[in-house]
Amino acid sequence: METSTVERLLLGFLTIVAIVIFLEPVIKRLKIIASAKGNLETDRIGERISRWLKEVLFQSTVIAGRPLPGITHAFVFWAFIVFLLETADLYFRMMGSKFGLLGNGPFHHFYQQIVAVFAVLAFVGILYLFIRRFFFKPPALGEHISWSSGVVAFFIMFLMVTYLLGIYVFEESSQAFKINAWLHILVILAFLDLIPRSKHLHLIFGLFTTFFKDFELARIKPLHLDLEADEETWELGAETLKDLSKHTALGAFTCVECGRCFDQCPARNTGKKLNPKQLMLDLRDAYLHNSEKQFLEDERFNEIIWQCTTCGACTFQCPVGIDQVIPIIEIRRGAVANSVFPDPMRPLFDNLESVGNPWLYQPSDAAEFLAENEFPEYEKGRVLYWMGCMARFDAEYRKVAVAFKKLLDASGVKWGVLMEETCTGDAARRAGNELLFQSLAGMNIETLNEAAPELIVTTCPHCMKTLREYKDLGLNENIKIIHHTQFLVDLINEGKLKLTGKTDGKTVYHDACYLSRYGDDNDWRNPRILLNKAGTVLVEPSRSKRTSFCCGAGGGMLFTEETEGTRINHDRVEELLKTGMESFATACPFCQMMIRDGLGDKGNEGIPVRDIAEVLADCL
To answer: What pTM was computed for the model?
Structure first.
């Protein structure tokens, strides 16, 4: 294909114009991100690259969440990757190069055949996605259909068709080939200018949001609160938009509006106003049009932030690496710093501050329980069982502590508990009271560093998560902290714990969010391994394992009231009852309480709800 000087000058001019139009909104957004608080994470580069290849290049998260839409989206994405060289080759040829970028030999011909396959796959994929969005209209995609989605679908189908026409129908020397090539390039330039003005900016920013996201799900970073320094130097959370992190700002501009977070959110699923997708879109709109936004002046924000259970389902499902939980917690922090929080939170904060537990129990109550049941006091060199407030004070959950003690003693493990254990502050932190959390954490860190255990085992996933967070505040990095289900699996595998009996009946296991999602990769498997060892007939609900549905207690919500929609634990209990189970199994004190209460509310209080430790203890 030969082009005239005028054609080459015109193409060059249009390219420059397109690049300028593209860069203006991109630079504006980059400046906003650069001015946001903190830094983007760059540690563990090798692992970041490996994760990026898995989640971006191979589209693992996209496909896992919604297999059919996911694979069709992957076809389009992979087509764009292989198209890059072909597009550059065509552009060079139109600018006068006889050999383009790929030459005129057999390699280029072979490469064209590969690209043609992806062109067909991309056409089929985008046609399916177009029909799904504009005709089937899944609720997660939103009530208002974006016009840009239709334009982009047309652009992609047009590019695939013009490419196939160019290599299979039109002769390169023909006028039809040249017209086809011009149309192809012009659509690419138009597509380039549409990207930063629509949700399709994720094609660029998503590459970075995924790379820079934290390795821990919804990791909460400590605020600088030096109690001996001037209060003016303290960090107070997000009172204004500018107080949010760089990754949050990047995420706001990256959101692809797919609605996976919308589908998974327990608040949204039970008729509440919180919608994680809309939250990010509202932040995006504020960054662009209301950069001085004061969160305390926004009644809607002050309502929806207190509907989040911090279950992490939104962040876990997000295909472009957005962490929706973090801005919610940061805005809560800013609100609590200004004494703005739901009234039911006041007793939680007051009780934690005065007696070190959420329910105003006296430490002597725990001491009496430990003495009556002969719990050994921790000595150096032993395994430390961190009980948590529920195991020390709640009448029902104390049964779990006793059952776990029975298993530990049967295994011959040397272990012990702290006689004066204080709440980890999990609920305080996730409810935004960072000052109270750090006060509790400081006491516990001093105690644990002095005790110097090599291993801490806890029956509470919330304690496990929060104790691990202590390492950001000075807890000895070498202390290993695991959940009791992991420890029990290890004891069985090592032959130290032997189960001689079997349990009967069908059991449904409810996955705790702070174990199945926040925990390690095997933490959702361990309870199932143990139930299998106990001979349980396990039945699974539709939402289980790493995509389990929340019980409604996390994020401090155990200590407040749901005033809108259906109670989250009622929704979950109804789902679990549909499995036809005869008993419930849990591995979290919060979950056990919420399921027990939900069953009572539904008139099914007679169905047993037991922790994994209780199930196993009955098999000794």
So the answer is: 0.94
